[in-house]
Amino acid sequence: MNTSRYSRQELFPPIGAAGQAKLKDARVLVVGAGALGTSSAEMLVRAGVGHVTMVDRDYVEWSNLQRQQLYTETDVKNKLPKAIAAQNRLMEVNSEVEITGIVLDVNGTNVEELVQNHHLILDAADNFETRLIVNDAAVQYGIPFVFGACVASYGMTFPMIPGKTPCLHCLINHLPSQNQTCDTVGVISPIVQLVTAYQVTSALKILTGNEITPSLQSFDIWKNEQAEINVSALKNKDCPTCGSNPTYPFLAYENQTKAAVLCGRNTVQIRPGLEREISLQQLAQRLKELGSEVVLNPYLVSCTFEDFRLVFFKDGRALIHGTSDTGQARAIYNRIIG
Ligand SMILES: [Zn+2]
Q1: Of 237, 239, 283, 276, which Cα lies nearest the Cα of 255?
Q2: Closest CA to 81 of 128, 32, 130, 41
Q3: Separation of 10 CA from ligand 1 center, angstroms?
Q4: How many whole angstroms from 223 Cα to the centroid of ligand 1?
Q5: pLDDT for the residue numbered 160
Q6: Mean pLDDT confidence for 177-203
Q7: Which end of the chain has fewer CB atoms within 10 angstroms, the N or the C?
Q8: pLDDT for res 265
Q9: CATH architecture of 7-251
């Protein structure tokens, strides 16, 4: 009986010893080290993917431990950046593979350098702006990008293959509302596991040269609902990302979210790069459910959130009072707005 590390995976005919060798040579980038990212990365590392890069801008907090499976109470106490805590844990899981944790806020300026030298990108971001930036870079460099997202008990996933399938930019207006986040409506761990099970299966198929089905899968695990949508018809030949004259708009500086420290006010202003109208009423409702003290008028919503005072305007602009750290302010913005 073969008891070697990957024997059970090699016994599975679509992978076999040849597929295992391909996994060993593979380099995968996981964007985000939250719930989706820690679950995917653990599976990839156990499966023997030769190099896994994890990138994340955040640090470990108590509210992460319910579902972010690589982290411990010690990581919270040490306020470790997620990318570093994840790297440490993954190195204990498998010392035969290379793991690189990078503490970074992925944006249109740094994404190109980040994605190069990877064979596949797994999406585990917590907001659609980052996803669209990574999607642009993935299409530009011809790297498959496996989209995955979840909130509450709902999730979806789709493997994007440049030149073959529609890209995330083609699909974006066909996806359900993207203004809910785990910080406003919560999330349960089983939907994370379901989405990453599909994402990692797609990754293993792509990396071992197996065929994949390019369909969008969506699930509500609490309601026992599942749907598979063939999205081939949604490929937009004029798509600014994957169409015949690509401009990769999300990589352009003018389209990036700007964060500016307001002088002497301990406040950061966030201005979204792309037009986004937000419903102040819906936002106020969600914030009230969080127990926040909310003020709503026709022009803005103001609330308290942790140690901060936040003000959101209809055009998506926000003021984050209580910090002069633009990275922290952007993270708070994405936790509320997505
Ligand atoms: Zn496209």
Answers
A1: 276
A2: 32
A3: 36
A4: 31
A5: 98
A6: 90
A7: N
A8: 78
A9: 3-Layer(aba) Sandwich (3.40)
d(Cα 207, Cα 144) in Å, to the nearest integer? 10
* Residues 17, 250: Cα–Cα separation, whole Å: 40
Q: Which two tokens stand for residue 54?
A: 């994890």
Helix (H, G, I), strand (E, B) or coil at 169: helix
The tens digit of pLDDT for each residue in 75-90 reads: 999 989 999 999 999 9
**179 Cα: distance to centroid of ligand 1 (angstroms):** 21
**Domain 257-337: homologous superfamily in CATH:** TATA-Binding Protein (3.30.310.10)
**Model confidence pLDDT, tens digit, residues 140-176:** 999 999 999 999 999 999 999 999 999 999 999 888 8
Q: Could you state, in order of their start, the residue ranges of all structural domains in the chain?
A: 7-251, 257-337
Q: Please, are residues 169 and 240 in contact by the beta-carbon 8 Å criterion?
A: yes
Q: Which two structure tokens, joined as six digits, stand for 113?
A: 């350098």
Q: Which residues are catalytic?
A: 182
